[in-house]
Amino acid sequence: MIDINLIREKPEWVKTQIARRNDSAPIDEILATDTRRREILHEVEALRRQRNESSKEIGRLMGTLKKLEAELKRAETGQETGQSIETLRAQVQEMAANAEQAKEETRRLGDRIAELDEELRVVEATLREKMLWVPNIPHESVPDGPDETWNVHHDPQGAPEPQFDFEPKPHWDLGVELDIIDFERGVKLSGSRFYVLKGLGARLQRAVIQFMLDYHVTHHGYREIYPPFIVRAQNFEGAGQLPKFFDNIYRDAEEDFMLLATAEIALTNLHRDEILEEADLPISYVAYTPCFRREKMSAGKDVRGIKRGHQFDKVEMYKFTTPEQSYAALEEMKQHAIDICEALGFRYRVVELATGDLGFASAKTYDIEIWAAGCQEWLEVSSASNCEDFQARRVNTRYRPMDGGRLRFVHTLNASGLALPRVMIALLENNQQADGSVVVPEVLRPYMGGIEVIR
Fold it and tell me: Residue 235 contacts by C-beta under 8 Å, 6 or more apart in sequence?
């Protein structure tokens, strides 16, 4: 979430930045709720001071009362006290009444404080809920535009566009003819948008995953993580997936468990409520996970093949950095995704997302797209984003500066490195031969047991 102080100090600027995203947020409601929260805190603080003073007064009155009662007792036993018994009894009664009145006032103050504490609990919960609906502020360098048509596409790079002396086939034909993709049995098992990889198809996907993990660990210096694929709901909230994307999440009907939509969710929460040391930053992780998303797909759109589905695999890069490091880290992670594209022989292009196409938690995002020669499409295989301190505030991950200053929130970044099955689509379609076979890229052959061609 964004800093509440930013909303307090520059509410109209915040509204303008959110409007850049072609989005909205309850900023006025947040301000009103925050004002009420601070009013309650101020009133509770004043009441507690009064209660403390009242408690001190009770102590003073009770001390005086005990002295008067002792003096009355001596008078009643015939000892000289300097005052008549009647006078002492009147003083005891008056002091007892004053003490009871002070106790009653203390109880009244306590009851009011309890009422306000309960209201504060409700108000703070309401404020947090409203804050969770505020998207991240776009970085000033992000191109303005209401939707994806305003994205900035850079010139294609990498390998030349594949050339064929025959009509290249799309993967939905090629995979079936090679008997490595089975759409019918996927539907039989799970319904539409599911498929089965068979034989060398399954092995090829496994090889790609292993290759990418090894490359990121060996060449890019990431530390591999194998997280749970099922996590608690608070992890989704921390990563910025909840409450906005609740309907897209596969979840347990009885327990507080949700299936990962991306490894980013688990990695964001890996250092929840921790204080890191600046000397240890940046921290770089890479993880493979299956991903589960209840995609709201339009009928007739991307209905063929394996491009869009409710389950897919992905290798995810993730970094925790200082604020000063984060935008250099974003460029680095973008290049790390490109390195994989180049190693696999892809023609690729970088896309700078416009403000209206940014993800909810992102301040700036690059997409990496690769060319698939069979379906004649640019396919997104990586999305590299800097979330700045947006996620860190949700999961309370901070670091201790080396200069001994106050604790600061880290910046978090994520990037696909890369996402399947679109990598599989391009591998099959770009490397197909006239006889229907597919050449395995050289870097993958060690992971395929030396197999050079899928026939």
Answer: 258, 265, 266, 268, 269
Residue 251 appears among annotated catalytic residues: no
Strands 258-259 and 347-352: unpaired
C-beta atoms surrounding 182 within 10 Å? 18
Catalytic annotation present for 54: no
Average pLDDT over residues 428-433: 98
Per-residue pLDDT tens digits for 273-297: 999 999 999 999 999 999 999 876 5
If pLDDT is split at 50, 70 and 90, which confidence band does 118 have? very high
> Which residue in 203, 293, 347, 394 is the catalytic one?
293
- Say which of 53, 57, 69, 380 is annotated catalytic: 380
Set 383, 385, 394, 416: catalytic member = 383
- Active site includes 393? no
Neighbours of 43 (CB within 10 A): 15
Q: Is 51 a catalytic residue?
A: no
Q: Where are the beta strands (DSSP E) in 119-218?
A: 152-153, 157-158, 181-182, 196-197
pLDDT higher than 70, residue 299: no
Parallel/antiparallel/unpaired status of strands 157-158 and 347-352: antiparallel
- Candidates 308, 400, 408, 445; catalytic one: 308
Active site residue 383: yes
